[in-house]
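Bug #77: duplicate submission created two jobs. Keeping one. Sequence:
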Amino acid sequence: MSKNFLQTLKESLKGELFFDDLHKTIYATDASVYRVIPTAVAYPKNIEDLKTIIHFCNEHKLSVIPRTAGTSLAGQCVGDGIVVDVSKYFTDILELDTTTKTISVQPGVIRDELNIYLKEYGLFFGPNTSTSNRCMIGGMTGNNSSGTTSIKYGVTRDKVIEIDAVLSDGSEVTFKPLSKVKFQEKLELQTLEGDIYRTIFAELNADGVKEQVFDNFPKPEIHRRNTGYAVDELLRLQPFSESGDSFNMCKLLSGSEGTLNFITRIKIQLDDLMPDNAVMVAAHYKSVADCCDSVYEVMQHDLYTCEMMDKVILDCTKNNKSQLPNRFFIEGDPAAILMLELRDTDKDRLEEKRKSLIASLDKTGLSYANASLYGSEIEQALELRKAGLGLLGNIVGDKKAVACIEDTAVSIEDLSEYITAFSAIMSKYKQNAVYYAHAGAGELHLRPILDLKKSEDVLLFRKITTDVAHLVKKYRGSMSGEHGDGRVRAEFIELMIGNANYELLRRVKKAFDPNNIFNPGKIVDSAPMDTSLRYQPDREEPNVDTLMDFSDSEGILRAAEKCNGSGDCRKTHVSNGAMCPSYHATKNEKDTTRARANALRDYLTTSEKNNKFDNKELKEVFDLCVSCKACSSECPSNVDVATLKAEFLYQYYKDNPPSIRDKAFAFNTKLSKLGSVFPSITNSKFSGGIMKKVLNIAPERTLPAIESFNFDKHLQRSLSKSVTKGKVIIYIDEFTQYLDTTVGKDAIELLTTLGYEVRLYYGESGRTFISKGFLKQAQELAVNNVARLKDLVASDCPIIGIEPSAILSFRDEYLRLVEDQDSVKKVALNSFIIEEFLAEEIKKGVITSEDFSTEEKTIKYHAHCHQKSQSNTKATFDVLNIPQNFSVTMINSGCCGMAGSFGYEKEHYEVSMAIGELRLFPSVRKASKETVIVANGTSCRHQIKDGTGREAIHPVTLLNKMVVRK
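Kept job's structure:
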């Protein structure tokens, strides 16, 4: 495709069109095993943009690939045409009717965010996928998604009432329920819409078709199924069934994967909010077979969810920091767990239901433990299960749990037999499958573990899928319960429903899309399932040398490959967590953890340069990464982009020397030391103006003042006459020493007043070097600090830090920078944020509320990103609550947006402030003047000052003001 043609298209759109290598690379994959480089990527702003793109694709024989969150597991949104991403601009909630309990939305509305909006009206949208905090209603409609609640609230197809769409000729239509008269009127239209209705009527009204379809499609009691186009659903409606509901083409469009039209509006049916009172029974089993044998019995109860996860997934959660607290209910080492949720408006009635369910479980004798969970415990358990899909990426090495047979569904009466037969197939291929299931709906997400970099495993990929397809056919099940046919299962549809029905589907596709522009190769006429894979089989794996140690992932390439595309990084600021701050502000896929990992993987694999890091596309994709490290804990696969970025910059600088500004920020400690000699000159307006101009710093920014202070003398003045507590080493890091001396003084005074024997340790952490990619310098500092500290620190003499990003580098990056692993691990084990240390002392009863004033104070606390990812915010919350009359609120703020030097850089200023405006700034502005704003990060405090005009203080400063001096 000529770039001139694409440029012309770009200029005709209100939205954006990209056809550069970077965007094509990051849109070449989704959450599936496939990789296809598209011609271009579009972010349409309105329906006219969509029409323009469709006309262009018709004219140039290109395809249109609709895309929302891109979390599809079957390759639905990869293709060689124009990927049309509606997640940025088609995000409006259009109209809510509380009387009919319906709502109209654009396709880019996120499911969880829709339900947040609906909550005040007592309504919600029932289908609930594991990706619900980023998946969108358009994608859910395209896939006919269902999730955990389908046994109670049905699937998306059950909820879609109307669809506005653009057809393949650019015409706009509305599909909705039609009376017999209205249906007849559609047949008379001399338009593409009329052609569609005439084809549907002629095909489904033909002699023998109803029997042909019903005899070969999945059993009707299998509610979750996406086998081809749902013509069987249309046959249950008028005029094909006299007793059926009014004809509605939406039944067919739900699950059509963007192959028939382009959806612009969806009207969906809502339900009343679930009863508040809930209990979950977590039944533990010694085998998957026992678990499956229980399903039919437990489904006789009024369950809201019936979910299964197996040992492989449970073991994955052991290594995920954010999921460890959610494992609290697991007893022993179960092979599988059934999560059975009951609800009722009446608590006593709910308790009777719980007792009845446990009695049934006891009667079967198959489970060995049945834990009952209430309140927030249920959310924790469900979060553990939801994280399962992404957590599968934690398998180190090239073998991965592969999506191909992960979505099969059979009737629950057949489930036990089916799983036994399935296990036999797995044994035949020497597979230990991963079982992750909506067991109550008869749907099992069964994944073989394969290395698709090897041709022999690609062959197994096909053989296993083929054998399972025949098995599913035997039970008249569905190869796809909710994940769709896409590329991976489409070639088996003919086997599943027979040639005559398959040809019917092809004619339906032809009627809607004569030129085959809408997402071709999905559902019908697909390419073989084992082509266009993400990895080239039997390729010679690139040998990528790094300064940092990535041996825990078997190298940096495999560290990037851990990203399986599940898209957790696409949740917005409305959801909990901080990942990814720049994406929250821009809503560009380019600014997600997924895009950065995928781009790095792709260029390290395909670049022909000697230095594979030397690609401007990688510089661009990492540019807005603020190194918050949220991905290292919030990404289910623990993809640590901040660390990947640091290594990338180091390698990139070998061929592209860093700028003067990069050097100035990296060597900031040396400059601060020089400036501290004559701070009045350094901090003058004149000096600051020159610095901003020379270093291209945003003129709107205030620069931190350089300070000079003798901490040793202050310690001598502050020493307590009687040491009543243990020994501690206070880490005077580079930020405390030159930029925040007051906090250092407060830490010394607080700990000595509390009775601790205090020593000081001075040393640059290397944080500025790490964030700017000066890894040689960072390594030198890390080696030196570890050598000096290894014989000083111990469990009874820890080193405690004031600035989280400095002290936490001892526990994070130092482990990758220092070769002496025994020594660095000892230092890491005994390094703590000061609040962590104080919180532990409070737990032991060493520090009590009597040590502090009873003065009343209201406090709002913002936590540093590195604390959120590498430590925990509860420590600070607990510490701030030790004074009796403190009222503390944690600000659900994500990243502040400053992120070290990032927010000072002129080209990043707007994004930095936009991040702050999402959550942090509004929360601070709402606080009364009497409320104390607390933040433990030096950058965070500066950002709050620049963004709101409010002064924020470190927790230590507040506690030092409140400590009782005896």
